[in-house]
Amino acid sequence: MIEMSGGEDRQYRLGYAGDTLNTAWYMRALLGKDWSVDYFTGLGEDRYSGDIRAFLEANNIGTDHIRTVPGRRPGLYMIHQEKGDRHFTYWRDTSAAKLLADDKGALHAAVAGASMVYFSGITLAILAPRARGRLLGAIVKARDAGARIAFDTNLRPALWTSPRVMAGVLTAAASLCDIVLPTHTDEAPLFGDKSVDETAERYLELGVEEVVVKDGAGEALIATASERVKVAPKPGAKVVDATGAGDSFNGAYLSSRLAGKSLREAAEEGHRVAGVVIGQKGALVDPKLLG
Ligand SMILES: O=C(O)C(=O)C[C@H](O)[C@H](O)CO
């Protein structure tokens, strides 16, 4: 998506971002050169779609499978800060990404041979019901072929027809995944979770192997059938713009796990990277700032 961040005196900075793209960005920044990171979405033929492709390629994120949808353009969102948190206003009803799952063959080709496939609740929210089915079908096939499936439920009520539909679709999708990375404060009002442990328990009961519950400035809980690890972020991080905090945590966490790190080490890396991201405007920070 096109991202407009900043906004003081109505001056905005144009960037490219979006939750799954943000996670791909941080995975690319943190994984060694022997890994490849590919991004799958829909883009149009307009100048901004072309610029997004060029931006990804310049940053070593593969674009080979991206669908070109003639006549469509990227979605756009603006960020504003209010009551200590970031808020988004969207222009995406006719975005090319909404049609990313219209071609079954393209979907299967995009995930074939991957070690890990990552998607989110926003990916599902923007798709029509039948397209959601096609996407999940491709994901199940990739999993059967050996890919680990990682999923951030990333609740965005504004993108769903009702809370009931959102809860049902996200729960069904999570049950197909190996690693689920929800945010407790988003999930609590929808599912009635009273603690991070209850959020984790709900996904473990679905058969998810590794549940990574983020809780903003609180402790993250990493839960498996045999292990529970709570990891607090280092205090004192200054919040300029929290956009991309969860996505960057996910990117750092998943990169660490792929590199063989423990649950605790991966969560510590997640907090460290998210701590840098919230100190900058917009979702993507220069990889040089990540240390
Ligand atoms: O909200 C969305 O659809 C976005 O992808 C915009 C932001 O980059 C994302 O929400 C941050 O998690």
Automatic annotation (TrEMBL):
Coiled coil: none annotated. Keywords: Kinase, Membrane, Transferase, Transmembrane, Transmembrane helix. SUPFAM superfamilies: Ribokinase-like (SSF53613). Residues 8-283 form the Carbohydrate kinase PfkB domain. GO terms for molecular function: kinase activity. The keyword Membrane applies. The chain crosses the membrane at residues 106-127. Pfam families: PfkB. InterPro entries: PfkB_Carbo_kinase (IPR050306), PfkB_dom (IPR011611), Ribokinase-like (IPR029056). It comes from the Bacteria. Belongs to the carbohydrate kinase PfkB family. This is Sugar kinase. It comes from Devosia oryziradicis.
